[in-house]
Specification:
The complex is a heterodimer of chains A (296) and B (340). With 296 residues, chain A is an alpha/beta fold. Chain A is built from nine helices and 14 strands. In chain A, strand 1 and strand 2 form a beta hairpin. The longest helix of chain A is centred in the middle third of the chain and has 18 residues. Chain A is elongated, with a radius of gyration of 21 Å. Chain B is mainly α and 340 residues long. Chain B folds into two domains: 238 residues, no CATH class; 97 residues, no CATH class. Chain B has eleven helices and five strands; from the N terminus they run ααααααααββββααβα. Chain B has a three-stranded antiparallel beta sheet with strand order 1-5-4, with no helix packed on it. In chain B, strands 2-3 form a two-stranded antiparallel sheet. In chain B, strand 2 and strand 3 form a beta hairpin. Chain B is elongated. The chains are: A alpha/beta (296), B mainly alpha (340). At the A-B interface, helix 2, strand 5 and helix 3 of A face helix 1 and helix 4 of B.
């Protein structure tokens, strides 16, 4: 099965600033992948490159087996819900659905209308007068009714209140279950992704810091708490992600394929948020700690 | 794609249609009287005009001159720039339509609508004003002919090409600047600059001009004027057809070289020290002109004959359309390769 997105040495430069550099990653198809990173880490750049809105400065990117936006067939494979979910303020909800129907050969009108009806949106309402949550739902309906192979969402819930956030993600997940499509969505809030993603990619300073299946990552990462000690004393198969020392106590986040046997450690499980944050907080790897890649 | 273009454009298109219809109504109401007057007697037509008629004549020129500029700024400049500013290009460019087709359709529909609008307005204004083009009063006053730089750009087919050019210019500047308001302002500035530059330096050479040597006499004399700073006098004459567009008007001496007018002319014509312009009828000038002619002075005139009107119209239309196509090609390249 081809990857939904595959990049190799991908970089994008604006003037003298690299928004994304040397990014090599593979996003599996048929999954919901969360792209996490702080603001300015290069998430939007990566997603816009995948959507074909940007062209790479260096390296290559393939989406669903082809160069992004290279032709109509390639454009049809991808649904894109851009950041801030742009819609035409002067056009009504109905006009937006007509726009989708006119511009997309694979348009599923029944699907689009059923989503609009379920949300209770007035088809005659201008998009400019919708709430942020409604506008995001309209943009999502446009993206889904295109019947894409891959749906990309760039910070879809960033501007929504917690309730609209939850509702949006829930409806997204329902649609994913019905349509069997790959999803790639970004957020700088990890808790948003925790509920919906089964694969995660962490970008730090425009570099891939961590990529892997959520379940595997959670199984192989542990928080160890115990009396203060040096980290050199750890077994070979335990790699320290972060360490924190007080006068008497040491807290580590470690990755290991095996089991932590040392009884002096108190081992606790990590949430995805804790795990991702521990990678994001880690200072840029001065020593040779390559980006961790855990695939299947 | 045409549907989307029209859906986004229809309010502007209808506004233009209503404005054009209102203008046509005003012209239709007042134009019939002009047409009647012209049919009855063209001889004294100018003397029969009211000041309202003359104002309308000038207003017509201003409207036709303004339409392409306004369309370029308000239809062209925001076309891409507003999408870029509001981020909606990310919605439009990720539908199953290539960016090139999206842009080409939008520019084509908008340029076509602008061409139609400019064409209709020009047609209405030309119908109203053509009996008045180039007429002169029996004693004083005149209106510019349709080949003079004052009127040429507001008659015939060139306004259509100007509208197409202004729209593509606006679209291109909008795509480059990415902000609608600066793009609108720069579109106006550049469009006006082009409209000034073309009649000054390009239009006279579109068709090879005609040259003629004309004897200086009471019948051909247009004006004698004195440049108060240098104290030199100069003469202009006119060609047989008042509709000709005179490009240069130089005095030659007996040997056929460019020469200043002799110093005695100043006293001879006994003119006041300030400029004397317009038709010179004063009797004392006659002997001075005869003396000039006797000394071998003639007037060298380079002009575009009135009959070249349509040749120049089509040449300039072609020029602007070629410029529009080049701009559009640049714009497609920019949007496809540089905005990514």
């Amino acid at each position: 099965m081809t990857a939904a997105v595959a990049t190799d040495g991908l970089g994008k430069r604006y003037g003298r600033r690299w928004a994304l550099s040397d990014c090599t990653l593979e996003i599996p198809s048929g999954r919901v992948t969360g792209l996490v990173g702080k603001n300015g880490a290069g998430k939007s750049t990566l997603l816009n490159l995948a959507a074909g809105l940007l062209r790479p400065t260096t390296g290559t990117i393939e989406v669903c087996g082809g160069r992004p936006a290279s032709d109509v067939a390639q454009l049809a494979k991808l649904g894109f819900v851009a950041q801030d979910t742009p819609t035409y303020p002067g056009l009504s909800v109905r006009d937006h659905l007509r726009l989708g129907a006119r511009l997309n050969p694979g348009w599923d009108d029944a699907l689009a209308w059923s989503r609009i009806e379920r949300l209770g949106l007035d088809p005659g309402q201008r998009a400019g007068r919708l709430s942020g949550g409604q506008r995001a739902q309209l943009a999502l309906a446009l993206g889904l009714a295109k019947r894409p192979e891959l749906l990309i969402l760039d910070e879809p819930v960033a501007s929504l209140d917690p309730f609209a956030r939850r509702e949006f993600l829930q409806l997204l997940m329902e649609a994913v279950a019905e349509q069997e499509l790959s999803v790639l969505l970004s957020s700088h809030v990890v808790s948003d992704l925790e509920r919906v993603c089964d694969h995660v990619v962490v970008l730090v300073d425009s570099q891939v810091r961590l990529a892997g299946e959520v379940e595997t990552l959670l199984e192989t990462h542990h928080r160890l708490t115990g009396p203060r000690r040096a980290t050199r004393a750890l077994p070979r198969d335990q790699r320290v992600v972060t360490e924190r020392h007080t006068d008497r106590q040491t807290t580590l986040v470690v990755r290991t394929g095996g089991v932590v046997l040392d009884p002096s450690w108190t081992v606790t499980e990590l949430s995805l948020e804790d795990l991702v944050l521990s990678y994001m907080d880690r200072p840029s790897s001065g020593e040779a700690t390559p980006a961790l890649e855990v695939l299947r | 794609m045409i549907w989307l273009t029209w859906r986004q454009f229809r309010v502007q298109a209808l506004t233009a249609l209503i404005a054009a219809a209102a203008l046509a109504a005003v012209l239709a109401m007042t134009g019939r009287r002009i047409a009647d007057l012209a049919r009855r007697g063209a001889e004294q037509l100018y003397d029969l005009l009211t000041s309202t008629d003359v104002s309308l004549f000038w207003a017509g020129l201003i409207v036709v001159a303004g339409v392409p500029a306004v369309l370029g700024a308000f239809w062209g400049a925001p076309l891409v720039a507003r999408e870029l500013e509001s981020g909606t290009h990310r919605l439009a460019w990720t539908q199953s339509v290539t960016r090139t087709r999206w842009l080409v359709t939008k520019v084509a529909v908008t340029a076509l609508a602008a061409a139609l609008t400019a064409g209709l307005v020009t047609l209405a204004v030309t119908w109203w004003s053509h009996p008045l083009d180039g007429i002169a009063g029996s004693t004083r006053g005149s209106l510019p002919g349709h080949l003079t730089p004052v009127s040429f750009a507001m008659r015939g087919v060139v306004p259509v090409a100007y509208a197409v050019f202004a729209v593509t210019l606006g679209v291109t500047l909008g795509a480059v600047l990415r902000r609608p308001i600066p793009a609108m302002a720069l579109t106006l500035v550049l469009y006006v600059a082009v409209q000034v530059a073309v009649p000054l330096w390009v239009r006279p050479h579109l068709v090879a001009p005609t040259g003629a040597t004309i004897a200086i006499s009471k019948d051909t004399l247009d004006s004698i004027s004195l440049d108060p700073s240098s104290g030199t006098e100069s003469i202009t004459v006119h060609t047989a057809d008042r509709g000709d567009w005179i490009l240069s008007n130089d005095t030659l001496d007996a040997s056929g070289h460019l020469a200043p007018l002799p110093g005695w002319l100043n006293q001879c014509s006994a003119s006041p020290p300030t400029n004397v312009q317009g038709a010179v009828q004063a009797q004392p000038v006659d002997p001075c002109l005869a003396r000039l002619t006797a000394q071998g002075y003639t007037q060298r005139v380079v002009y575009q004959p009135a009959g070249s009107f349509w040749t120049i119209q089509w040449a300039e239309t072609g020029l602007y359309l070629v410029a529009s196509v080049l701009l559009a090609a640049f714009c497609v390249w920019w949007v496809r390769d540089r905005l990514s």
